[in-house]
Write a structure and sequence with these properties.
It is built from seven helices and no strands. The protein has about 140 residues and is an all-alpha fold. The chain is elongated, with a radius of gyration of 15 Å. The protein starts with a helix and ends with a helix.
Length: about 140
């Protein structure tokens, strides 16, 4: 991997860590589903930082694919699969991140159809998947 690509990935991971910090703070503020659903600041910020975090995952995936000259993905879902196929991330994480890419598409393109209860569930139970992505990417960069 070129040093420039590695630097770009590390910069993106810094932003990623910042957004994860915001999401964990929002997780604390969303004491329960009722509070979350009734506070537009909570759900709005959660949606935005999830979108940004997932976009970073997509961007890093494409940077790795381009740098390593892996096969070109047809879409962002396939970009995640290519990382798994090349043993950069685990199969389990690949499946979880593929669902996250779907969520990002809804947040960006079909924002009228956002299921806020699903966003709450992700905030409360799935942030560790985002952290796991960072962990596996850092491990990959060290090889």
């Amino acid at each position: 991997m070129t040093s420039l690509t590695k630097q770009k990935i590390l910069e993106k991971l810094e932003n990623f860590e910042e957004y994860l910090g915001y999401l964990y703070q929002l997780q604390k503020e969303a004491r329960n589903e009722k509070v979350f659903l009734s506070d537009f600041h909570l759900f709005g910020n959660t949606e935005r930082y999830l979108q940004l975090s997932i976009q970073i995952i997509i961007d890093i995936s494409h940077l790795i694919i381009i740098d390593l000259r892996l096969r070109r993905p047809e879409d962002n879902y396939e970009a995640i699969s290519i990382l798994f196929e090349n043993k950069i991330i685990s199969e389990e994480l690949s499946k979880k991140l593929t669902r996250m890419v779907g969520l990002r598409n809804i947040l960006v393109h079909e924002y009228g159809k956002i299921d806020r209860k699903k966003i709450y569930k992700i905030l409360k139970k799935e942030l560790q998947d985002l952290k796991e992505f960072k962990k596996q990417i850092i491990k990959f960069l060290k090889t």
